Amino acid sequence: MAFELPPLPYEEEALEPHISARTLSFHYGKHHQAYVTNLNSLIQDTELAKKSLEEIIRLTARDEEKVGIFNNAAQVWNHTFYWHSMSPQGGGEPKGALAEKIKEDFGNFEEFKKFFKQAGVSQFGSGWAWLVLNKEGNLEVMKTSNADLPMVYEKKTLFTCDVWEHAYYLDYQNRRPDYVDAFLNHLVNWEFAQRNFDSSR
């Protein structure tokens, strides 16, 4: 069965003024849709057509002959996860067990924010910044290039920030630090992150 563009968890204008409806319209309606369309075309009439998105990602990671499939499958997954990593009521600080774990592993919340912002801003070219739980059970901030994602490193993703230019350029131009600040201060969906944290324990 062909993959479909999953619905946004909010209206396109819901993240304004931090991310405009115009940006979401292009990012979701054009970029994300293109990855879905390309993936369906690439796996049509192959053994991968019956696999789940996660299975396709794992089966094609590091396979030079299937790099196009991996890139499109991973970007479908990454973007879907990114939309849920944000909320119109986002920002602020986490609560409960996740807040305690951040304090334990980073020292305090402000130190975590510094690590996360540095990851997003210092990613050269296109990519992603992530908060993940590693195999040792510790929280970790990581960045990946292009379509790469923590899943292939056996790390559990709690939330992500897209730092490809198309994610922010219409609103912030070359001011990626301002965009990452807006993501952390006003958009990050801590309830979603908490659910992902809870499910991994």
Concise structural overview:
The chain has 201 residues and is mainly alpha-helical.
Question: Helix and strand layout, with pairings?
Answer:
Layout lengths: L20 H23 L9 H8 L6 H18 L11 H11 L2 H14 L4 E7 L5 E7 L10 E7 L6 H4 L3 H12 L2 H10 L2
Antiparallel strand pairs: 1-2, 1-3
Helix pairs in contact: 1-3, 2-3, 5-7
Structure, explained:
It is a single chain. Helix content is 50%, strand content 10%. It is mostly helical. A 3-stranded antiparallel beta sheet has the order 2-1-3. Strand 1 (127-133) and strand 2 form a beta hairpin. The protein is globular and about 50 Å long. The two termini are 32 Å apart.
Using brief descriptors, characterize the structure shown.
201 residues, Helix Hairpins, 50% helix, mainly alpha, minor pseudopilin epsh fold
Percentage of residues in DSSP E strands: 5-15%
Radius of gyration equals 17 Å
Order of adjacent strands in the largest pleated sheet: 2-1-3
Count of DSSP-assigned helices: 8
Q: How would you sum up the global shape? A: globular
Helix content: 40-55%
Number of strands: 3
- The CATH class of the largest domain turns out to be Alpha Beta
Series of secondary-structure elements, N-terminal to C-terminal = HHHHHEEEHHH
Overall residue-averaged pLDDT value:
97
